[in-house]
Design the sequence.
């Protein structure tokens, strides 16, 4: 079925292009690690076949699944797009909440100053938006964007690292500890998400 699908749509299976050891080929292992199969595939259009430089599985990737992460390395030339869109600022919400009274007063003063100005809807909206952005920039400012989610704590990062160590331990103790850490991490993540959501709701 996969071969027929590829033939109909002009696709190729990139997994079989590169000579790899078996541990880099299988993408799934049965519980107890008694059977391994290649079940996941990366397909590309035939015209891009020379752009694929490597395909392999990453057994140590911690993705909480009985499937191994399958990755491909591409090298291709894309048409350069010229974009002039500015990055949206990430405002300091903690500081905004702490200074909400002064922010509100300053914003009201700025809006009062332009209350009598005339113009169409777009002009009026731009004036209001400028007042809001000026106020936030002066009193609040921005924060650096962080890669991880706001609810991820150092304790959770430590649990992730410990869980990763037990992922490839193929014995009963290793599987038991991996399941235990996975459940602990899931509960900790759910609890952290609820706590940060509660904090945001209380500020509204």
Sequence:
């Amino acid at each position: 079925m996969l071969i027929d699908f590829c033939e109909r749509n002009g696709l190729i299976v990139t997994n079989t292009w590169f000579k790899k050891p078996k541990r880099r080929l299988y993408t799934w292992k049965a519980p107890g690690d008694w059977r391994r199969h290649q079940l996941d595939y990366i397909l590309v259009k035939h015209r891009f076949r020379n752009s694929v430089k490597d395909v392999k599985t990453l057994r140590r990737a911690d993705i909480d699944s009985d499937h191994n992460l399958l990755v491909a390395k591409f090298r291709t030339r894309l048409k350069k797009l010229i974009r002039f869109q500015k990055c949206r600022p990430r405002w300091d919400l903690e500081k905004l909440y702490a200074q909400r009274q002064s922010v509100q007063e300053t914003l009201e003063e700025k809006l009062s100053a332009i209350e009598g100005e005339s113009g169409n809807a777009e002009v009026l909206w731009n004036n209001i938006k400028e007042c809001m952005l000026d106020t936030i920039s002066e009193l609040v400012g921005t924060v650096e964007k962080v890669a991880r989610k706001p609810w991820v704590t150092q304790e959770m990062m430590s649990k992730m690292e410990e869980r990763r160590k037990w992922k490839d331990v193929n014995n009963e103790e290793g599987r038991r500890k991996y399941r235990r850490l996975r459940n602990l991490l899931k509960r900790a993540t759910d609890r952290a998400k609820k706590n940060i959501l509660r904090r945001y709701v209380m500020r509204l």
The longest strand covers residues 52-58. The mean pLDDT is 81. The helical segments are 2-9, 93-98, 100-113, 121-139, 154-166, 172-203. The beta strands are 11-13, 28-29, 36-37, 43-45, 52-58, 69-74.
